[in-house]
């Protein structure tokens, strides 16, 4: 059995959202139609506006509808520090958690030659121009601790080295408050190998 | 920290969907913008079309953009049987699970005087007209086994009685394949009190 064509189409379309299977799509569709028509109209407009108008910041590649994002155009940030992250959510997480006052460069992915994601797709030509410009004093690598994230960081570290820019990497290890027995073995072996003098 | 206005508005609007909190709204927004712009456009259109055009079937009150839904206008259904359910998803569940060939009447809620949901809001005037029409031979009550669902069924049974229409109620009890120890106590006590001769 099918619902009416417009309801079927709504349920089907909701499935493009991550984590939404057939049952939750159905629940969402009926919720919108039974209780949230105004919210639904607002949502439709917000999706349309964002999808049509949001592009990437010319300087850091973060998602924004402005030519240059709020962080890059701020005069309160230290332009000598450039933190490299994989996605816009990472910028948000770092801004929430740290007192970092430098700028970001958002790769929007990580190097993955098998999937056809090379240096250009990550804007590394733009990054290189920036490093050549001489303003950046330190590149802080904050890509994910995965094989592809590490390869991406390695590639960027080489670029920075060519331009004589200092490179640092955020620390990885046992999470604060984490109990050893619940930490995955990769993290644990990395933390063990990276042990420091205790003082 | 905020994202750009259009991204903030998208994240906020996604929260009108049931079960979507701040983190999943954020994940959905970035997913749409980074990987699903076409899906997002289709979703926006599907929401707008459904919210603007879907109303209720004139006969059974189910959600549909047609004046009369596919089930009510079918000539293959037994018009003497009328199953009363609370919502459109119940129609779907019964169609999937049973071989029922009669029609439905969808309350779109249940009696709840405290929330201002009275008989008119559930279309019970429409139901009464239908019972008075003489075509319906049996009303099958399939409201939820909750206090409000039971009260609603009780009210409808009275209506049916006044019009001399036979009324049945779908069985409630221990689910098939359910182990007793995992069944909630309300269901268990109901099942125990409703025990039948074994033959
Ligand atoms: Zn920027
Ligand atoms: Zn109908």
UniProtKB/TrEMBL annotation, chains A, B:
<dbReference type="Pfam" id="PF02132">
    <property type="entry name" value="RecR_ZnF"/>
</dbReference>
<dbReference type="GO" id="GO:0006281">
    <property type="term" value="P:DNA repair"/>
</dbReference>
<feature type="zinc finger region" description="C4-type">
    <location>
        <begin position="57"/>
        <end position="72"/>
    </location>
</feature>
<comment type="similarity">
    <text>Belongs to the RecR family.</text>
</comment>
<dbReference type="InterPro" id="IPR034137">
    <property type="entry name" value="TOPRIM_RecR"/>
</dbReference>
<dbReference type="Pfam" id="PF13662">
    <property type="entry name" value="Toprim_4"/>
</dbReference>
<dbReference type="GO" id="GO:0008270">
    <property type="term" value="F:zinc ion binding"/>
</dbReference>
<dbReference type="InterPro" id="IPR023627">
    <property type="entry name" value="Rcmb_RecR"/>
</dbReference>
<keyword id="KW-0479">Metal-binding</keyword>
<dbReference type="Pfam" id="PF21175">
    <property type="entry name" value="RecR_C"/>
</dbReference>
<keyword id="KW-0234">DNA repair</keyword>
<dbReference type="InterPro" id="IPR006171">
    <property type="entry name" value="TOPRIM_dom"/>
</dbReference>
<feature type="domain" description="Toprim">
    <location>
        <begin position="80"/>
        <end position="175"/>
    </location>
</feature>
<dbReference type="InterPro" id="IPR015967">
    <property type="entry name" value="Rcmb_RecR_Znf"/>
</dbReference>
<dbReference type="Pfam" id="PF21176">
    <property type="entry name" value="RecR_HhH"/>
</dbReference>
<dbReference type="GO" id="GO:0006310">
    <property type="term" value="P:DNA recombination"/>
</dbReference>
<keyword id="KW-0227">DNA damage</keyword>
<keyword id="KW-0233">DNA recombination</keyword>
<protein>
    <recommendedName>
        <fullName>Recombination protein RecR</fullName>
    </recommendedName>
</protein>
<dbReference type="GO" id="GO:0003677">
    <property type="term" value="F:DNA binding"/>
</dbReference>
<dbReference type="InterPro" id="IPR000093">
    <property type="entry name" value="DNA_Rcmb_RecR"/>
</dbReference>
<comment type="function">
    <text>May play a role in DNA repair. It seems to be involved in an RecBC-independent recombinational process of DNA repair. It may act with RecF and RecO.</text>
</comment>
<keyword id="KW-0863">Zinc-finger</keyword>
<keyword id="KW-0862">Zinc</keyword>
């Amino acid at each position: 059995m099918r619902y009416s064509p417009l309801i079927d189409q709504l349920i089907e379309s909701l499935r493009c959202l991550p984590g939404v299977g057939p049952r939750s799509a159905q629940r969402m569709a009926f919720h919108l139609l039974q209780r949230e028509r105004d919210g639904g109209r607002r949502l439709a407009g917000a999706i349309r506006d964002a999808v049509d108008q949001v592009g990437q910041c010319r300087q850091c590649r973060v998602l924004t509808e402005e030519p240059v994002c709020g962080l890059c155009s701020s005069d309160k940030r230290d332009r000598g520090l450039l933190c490299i992250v994989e996605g816009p959510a990472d910028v948000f997480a770092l801004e929430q958690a740290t007192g970092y006052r430098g700028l970001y460069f958002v790769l929007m992915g990580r190097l993955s030659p098998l999937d056809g994601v090379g240096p250009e797709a990550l804007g590394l030509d733009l990054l290189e121009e920036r490093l050549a410009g001489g303003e950046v004093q330190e590149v802080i690598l904050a890509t994910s601790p995965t094989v592809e994230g590490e390869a991406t960081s390695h590639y960027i570290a080489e670029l920075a080295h060519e331009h004589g820019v200092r490179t640092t990497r955020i620390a990885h290890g046992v999470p604060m408050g984490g109990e050893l027995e619940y930490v995955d073995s990769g993290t644990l072996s990395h933390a063990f190998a990276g042990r420091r003098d205790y003082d």
